Amino acid sequence: MTNESVPEREPYLRAMIDPPGGNPFPQRHLLGIEGLPPEQIQYLLDVAEGYAAAQRSRQFRPKLRGLTQINLFFEASTRTLMSFEIAGKRLGMDTVSFSVDTSSIKKGETLLDTAQTLNAMRPDVLVVRHGRSGAVSLLAQKMNCAVINAGDGQHEHPTQALLDALTIRRRKGRIHGLTIAICGDILHSRVARSNIHLLSAMGARVRVVAPPTLLPYECMRLGAEVFTNMEDGLKGCDVVMMLRLQKERMQGAFLPSEREFFHFYGLTEDKLKPAKPDVLVMHPGPMNRGVEIATSVADNLQHSAIEEQVEMGVAVRMGCLDVLTRHLHDQTEADQ
Ligand code: ASP
Questions:
Q1: For the segment 127-185, what is each residue's pLDDT rounded down to a tens digit?
Q2: Are 150 and 81 in contact (CB under 8 A)?
Q3: Helix H or strand E segment including 152
Q4: Quick check: CB of 190 below 6 Å from ligand 1?
Q5: How many angstroms is it from 151 CA to the middle of ligand 1?
Q6: What digits encode the pLDDT tens for the residues 29-86?
Q7: How far is the CA of 139 from the centre of ligand 1 (A)?
Q8: pTM of the entire predicted model
Q9: Looking at ligand 1, which residue's alpha carbon is closest to its atom 8?
Q10: Which atom of ligand 1 is nearest to the CA of 243?
Q11: Which of these, 44, 82, 90, 158, has the minimum number of CB atoms within 10 Å of its CB?
């Protein structure tokens, strides 16, 4: 990270990035947010902030040239896969992406055999999305390179939580002390889980708002306040984060109908009224307009940060690729 790419308006970042001595992110992989100390989260956000500025000024330095990144996606993805690929390319990496449809998994290969095969190709970073919770950390045990979890079942999606946090920090100037409501299908959402961990660790007051059938028991244990109606849940909120109904993970009927869900839980201008006047509206995508969010709210640029979330997605992923390969490129840079 060059200090030149740090925006002038954030002088404190200069001290945060590349602090003298020690490794500010001593993790081999990024498998989840749970358990990460706040200072390590802060460090990832600070590095990503620098990349956000570099993106806006179109100043990319191929500092990871010669390193190989494999994106292995067992589940559909638009934003996450594309942004990891763009992030790697902007850093000069050789990126290869493949999805389950074109791989040997369809021919009966086990996850661990796939891991061993990929490991033999000696990648420097493996980015994995898988439908089963825990599959990515299982795979990481077999790999000699850094592994990044791009979403495992309903467990965690750490880079999504980081990009959400970066967006909030840029728009609100802080995370600490904010009241943030996460609404919708909490039960099946890895985005909700990673965000609850991250936002609580950074000192926000986290609320979850959902019908009782879509609330996991663990919410209270994770430190979130639980609400089952939007009016109470959104009162005085600084940020409202909406989630999609994750039908692909639902076994059985959790709701009478989508129409009824929209009536009680879909975010409309009216339901947003109890929140603060400058409330920020977020959504990780893909959005289902007219189900969890009304078009008039999603497209209202006064409140909506949805596009900025996508932009920050690339910056955060550049930051994660950089930080997790630092031992490799620091060496390369020293050799030159
Ligand atoms: N894109 C997010 C995820 O992969 C949210 C979603 O799919 O609704 O978890």
A1: 999 999 999 999 999 999 999 999 999 999 999 999 999 999 999 999 999 999 999 99
A2: yes
A3: strand 146-152
A4: yes
A5: 8
A6: 999 999 999 999 999 999 999 999 999 999 889 999 999 999 999 998 999 999 999 9
A7: 21
A8: 0.91
A9: 244
A10: 8
A11: 82
